[in-house]
Each structure stands twice: as structure tokens, then as C-alpha cells.
């Protein structure tokens, strides 16, 4: 894995100017990969100044020019495929299967963005004033701040960075302190693709030093944040007081509903993918499984059997499905939440070992919605199975959470599944598929405490642009 020890500002690699050092650790081995000097507020100033200057000329590039830059970017990423996997595995604990999803969807995001210039359309509207014409133009927002999470550091950075740039904005990207290398690797990709200086800038530093400052800075007009609800609320408050626009993709507490007429084997297989992908460290991961009486015991039996076959361990092993959590602190928190749930009356259907930062699958039954594992976003390979009496109770329990991101329903009656999905208080719902579902051309986003705003397609174009009304009075009105 390449060691990225400098910030990327205005097309140059610069040492951070903070007097504090940052460490990058391997979550599986716990070993220190490298250290680097953190970014300071001064570095943030320089990054925003570079982005502000570059945006003036970048916004004037022809649509075809921006498309050609994105084509070069995609080609560079394909050339760097092995490097990308090594970094994601070593820095974030991502398995080969998780990499295939993240890497593949990143390329799809870029491919989709190549057509975003076609969505930068405006309107000519009639006027009730004689001799007046009304024009509505869609324009770039200006400079966008992107704050990325640790779990999908490549995809969830590029999901904002690429559309923003495709729409004529420039970007300052701040990665999670747990996965800084991914953001600097993105900077290297843009550099190799030949993007003009200042179009993308990357600064990595401590949240306590630059976290609030990068949001409150006067330059960015939009803050795009992906991460926990608690941090999102804090950043949203800062942005709101300054009347900055926000795009917040936050936490989730997904429910998988398995009805009496469901195919139990299909549902159990889907639950494996929806619960254990990337160790459950996905905002869309299944947290609660709601089963009706007829399928309750058969589902638990099938799910436990399949879970025992899931390989856990080193993310570099291609057969491994579950790698490490991002750090041991998270694993200890998971253990505490499991203990609280068991002490409250839950039964252990499958007991998973916890070894350092590695958590083996846990399946808890006899769970109620008030218990810790069901109420919290576990962000780990832990399932809470809740018995519900019918579909009406299933919808009620599924909605009984402050989150509303992505839920799913399993039933052989597809029409009933669609009608029930409409009753779910979530931005996304899937019938006969698990909740970790993403297509770069389809709307993505949540309700309630799961976030504000929508990604992908014309939804993200609308978010990363603004509209201006210009009227022209052709005859003397006065």
C-alpha cells in the first residue's frame, strides 16, 4: 500500500501545517501503517482559496471537456485497480467482495456523471408583463465541501465529488481520520487524469482542529456529509446558522420483514448479504429481522445454518466475507450492546467470537424493539430477530425507529409487497431483495434521522446546482 503523507492543495502535494501528527492503522492487524502531519485551519484556507479561484474557469469549460476529463478519470481508476484494493483492504478492512461492489459502483457513478451536463438545462417561461421574457438558468453552486466516512471511503467520496465537479463546481474533500489514504488516492487519480489545479483539493486532519472550521468557512456553499447522525446533526446546525445548503446521508436501522408466505431460503440467503457485507458497517445494513409466526423458527434455523458457513478473518483472503471492524473500540462497543440485549431477555441463536477488532456473526432472537441491539445502529455483523404477529405489526415495528433509510420485505405476493413498502417510513424499500441496494442512476436517500437530500441522477444534479431567474424587458414598460 502506498503511503500518502502529504495534503493535496491546488494540484500540489504539501506537508500539513498542523503541529500534530496523524496515524493510519491497519484495522485487522492493529499495526501502524504510517504517520503524517495533520492539516491545520491554514491548510483549509489554502484549499478553499484554490477551489474558489479554479471554479471560475472550471465552470466555463465546455460540457464535452468535462466529460472527457471524466473518461480519463475512469481510465486511471481501471489502471489502478490493484492499488485501490490493497489500500481499501489494508486501511479499512474491506474484503474482496466488498471491494468489487465499491470499485464497480464508483466506475458506474463516473459513467453516469458523464451525462450530467445534459441535465444542466434551464427554462424559458412566459410573463404576465407585456414585452418581458423570463429565463431560468441552472448554474453550479460554486465550491462544495465533501466530508467522507470510513466504511466506503472511495465510493461515498466519489458519489459527491464526481457529480459536483461534473456540474461545474470545485471541491474540498475531507476524509475520515480512520481512512485518509483513500482520499489522497482519489487526489492522485484526479492528478493523473489531468484535471486543472484546484478543481479537487484534499485535506486530512483532526476533527477537533478542522472539523467545524471546514463547514463554517465562508467559501463553500454546500456541505455534503456522509456519516453518523450525531455528527451530521452537529454539522447541519453549523451550516444552518450560516444558511449553507446541506446534503446529509446519515445512519440507519434497517428492518427486513419476512412474511408467512415468503420463500424462507431466499430470505435467509438475502439476510446473509444484507447483514454481513463489510462486517455490517454499512448505513443500509440489516439491523432487525421481523418474522411472522409461520416462518419464525424455519427462518432462524436457515439463517443460523448459513451464518455458520460464513468465513471470517483477513480481508486479503478472497474467501473471507467478514473482515475486521474499523477498530477495537467499535468491537468493544458492539460487545457491550450485545450484553445489554441478552441481559434484557434476548436469546443467543448464534454466538460469535470477538477477537480484537474482528466480530464473528451474532444472531439474537426473542428480541423486542426496545432492546439495545434493535434500537441502536449496531454497525456490526449482529442480527436481532423480532417475532411479529402479522404484517400490520411488522410495519408498525419497522417504523418504530428514529431512522428511515432502507428497508425490505419478503413475500411471494409482489403486489402486497409493494403496497406494504409504501407504508414504510424510509427513503428506500425493496421487495424480495436485501436492503444494501444501490444503483447510481436511481434515487438514493433517507427520511427522518437518516438524512436530508438525495443522491444520483437528476436528484444529485439538482442538489449540486442552483437556479437563477433572469428577465428581459424588450419594450418600454413605463
UniProtKB/TrEMBL annotation:
Molecular function, one GO term: oxidoreductase activity, acting on the aldehyde or oxo group of donors, NAD or NADP as acceptor
Highest taxon of the lineage: Bacteria
Keyword NAD: yes
Domain Aldehyde dehydrogenase: 13-470
UniProt-listed SUPFAM superfamilies: ALDH-like
UniProt entry tagged with the keyword Cell division: no
Alphabetized UniProt keyword annotations: NAD, Oxidoreductase
Family matches, as Gene3D superfamilies: Aldehyde Dehydrogenase, Chain A, domain 1 (3.40.605.10), Aldehyde Dehydrogenase, Chain A, domain 2 (3.40.309.10)
Pfam families documented for this protein: Aldedh
Similarity remark: Belongs to the aldehyde dehydrogenase family.
Protein's name according to its UniProt entry: Aldehyde dehydrogenase
Species name: Vagococcus elongatus
